[in-house]
Amino acid sequence: MGAFRQIDISGAARPVPVDTVDAAAAGVATQSPLANAVRLMGAVISYARNEEVYGEDEPAEFVYMVIRGAIRTYKLLADGRRQIAAFRLPGDVFGLEVGESHVFTAEAIADSEVIVAKRSAIMTLAARDGTVARAMWAATARDLVRAQDLLLLLGRKSAQERVATFLLEMADRVADGEMIELPMSRQDIADYLGLTIETVSRTLSQMEHAATIALPTCRRIELRNRALLSRLNS
Amino acid sequence: MGAFRQIDISGAARPVPVDTVDAAAAGVATQSPLANAVRLMGAVISYARNEEVYGEDEPAEFVYMVIRGAIRTYKLLADGRRQIAAFRLPGDVFGLEVGESHVFTAEAIADSEVIVAKRSAIMTLAARDGTVARAMWAATARDLVRAQDLLLLLGRKSAQERVATFLLEMADRVADGEMIELPMSRQDIADYLGLTIETVSRTLSQMEHAATIALPTCRRIELRNRALLSRLNS
DNA sequence: CGATCGCTTGATTCCGATCAACAGGAGTGG
DNA sequence: CCACTCCTGTTGATCGGAATCAAGCGATCG
Known about the structure:
The structure is a homodimer. Chain A is an alpha+beta fold and about 230 residues long. Chain A is built from seven helices and eleven strands. Chain A has a four-stranded antiparallel β-sheet. Chain A has a four-stranded antiparallel β-sheet with strand order 2-7-4-5. In chain A, helix 2 crosses helix 3 (about 130-155), helix 4 (about 160-175) packs across helix 7 (about 225-234) and helix 5 crosses helix 6. The interface of A and B includes residues 77, 78, 157 and 158 of A. The first copy, chain A, binds a DNA duplex (30 and 30 nucleotides) through helix 6.
């Protein structure tokens, strides 16, 4: 069992509300009616690295959309073991709950900008506009599909397979060609994949030796053999 | 890596459509507008033990609600490793997808009765009735919360903790007092908890020796020390 | 330039998987 | 009814992959 790991909150809470912004100008493509609603009714807030966006069991007063940076959502066990359920990247909506409180904690992985909209306003809009209601459902369903893929990974895949799956997922989401710029630390990856930091590091090193990937820096990964990774992904 | 495990389909497909039934009489309590809609618009179909209800990637033509018995939904890896994502028990709605196809396979664990309703009919109703639309969202969100709890279990809990969590979950869902009547086999439990059948069996035996539980038969489990199980549940 | 933090690498341990044998129970057919 | 088989579950012995313990490296920052 892992020992308790202290998670330090280096950045002080420093919300900087701003009026409605042109999020498209901020690099977020127009997507669903939900994303549009959040964009129209929300304000931009900046979060420093490791700053908490909201905590587990807090009332779910707001809905969020990432503009810049990255957010992790996770649960903790009493002794500090952590499971990250999702990484939220620019364009992702998160914190949307059916119930009255959040089911996990959300924290900024890097300095980030997030649009924050009143949940009550979104819900009111959804009651009037069926396309918004449906987009909310679709967003929850998308999270569910992601979670179910992660279940299979955590329950049944080997360390190599987990890392391969992770790399391909990140390639889909943040890659510029074959080059991946990771926003998160090894510890975050480990807590997402249900491994230890050492195992993640070792596995990446092995893949580098096998020329499956290249590691120019520890936050940059170049895929050099996608076919092999896909085979490991099962 | 686990070897390929053959999953035999002993019961032949034998759908027995029936007109709208009084599901309350069948022991299912009235719940959400969604459950009511499925009940009103569906037909009862019987599935034999191990019979497939639907397969992964099949078009999602129907929505289902369990009346009697139990259903497992799962994903497979290419070599046969299996991860069960959920057990569906009487009253549970499943197979509700936002997209056009199912994201995993559903099979009867025991001989079961399921109400089957046309997805298109439910969707049409949801477009007219916001409470149905919201109930569909709520059902998906409930699945998501369950999946996220399972993520923490699969990623970070020990075998003992997994079994303890499972027992408490089943106690909540099917227990008559402290006595649990399991509908599923050890293999199903193992594939739900990300363990092997041997580890599940051993862990249950240990708990019996510690007088935490009693095992009158292998499908019946009596909780004798819920406090201890809760502590293991973290 | 030293300190700190994040990452990598090596040595060893340990939990759960694997391999193997057997027991109990249900169903089948004589 | 019993003998047989099949299936599920239990238990024991051993193995192995990832965790843990430990050391050192390298980049970033004050």
